[in-house]
Amino acid sequence: MDIKAFKMDGLGNDFVIIDNRQEITNLTKEQIIKICDRNFIGCDQLIFIETDKSADAYLKFYNSDGGQSGACGNGTRCVADLISKDLNIKSVVLKTLSGNLKSEILENNIVTTEIGKAKTEWNEIPLSEKLNTKNLNIKINDKNNKEYSGGTAVNVGNPHIIFFVNKIDNFDIKKIGPDIENYKIFPEKCNVTIAQIINNSLIKVKVWERGAGLTKACGTAACATAFASKLNNLTGDKTDIEFENGKLTISIDEKNSIHMKGPVSDIKKIEIKL
Question: Which residues are tagged catalytic?
Fold first, then answer.
């Protein structure tokens, strides 16, 4: 099987994008896992673009473990840029399992996407029992085995937990991430972020993505972190979230809707032989 596809990334958070609007490509879970494997093509997520009557396109996201995801912020921004160039439009609406997401294409490969309102009720995360989502009181240990307790849960199309710590480098996300992703109170698993407040408009983060593992950036994690930080009175309505390869700017408007702004890569055409 020969598949024509695209490769893009947002701050190193990379995607293989397959356009199913003209010619349909159906893949098994095993084939998706193979494409995402960095010993083959390699990506954090695989995205299918499909036709939709209520939007410019419909997106399906699959993690590198082959499981489907409800939302992907950086992936949405990448596809919005691709659709913009294809249809010669600057405003793009993409339908996802989490709803219709509107993106604006700006200059210099900058794309802004409105993610919508965050959910914070225990059954919206979802959790397996009724708990205080602002502080789940989950224990994690730093590299010196010092115990820390906390965790704010937010759903921005997929479930996230954010731990605000004094020094991010004291925590091993590769060790903490898989443990918390599979923690007993998360029936659908969760994305895990370790966050350090640098100042009232800058947060440094490391992210472990559900079904993908350690990633260089994560758009929905940036949105969830900014919202959780404001919820805990740590930052305001506009915050830069710093990843390994750069920053995303997250703004929360007067209606509590979250907007994400940042760069996307150039579009690279690839051919996959399965």
Answer: 72, 218
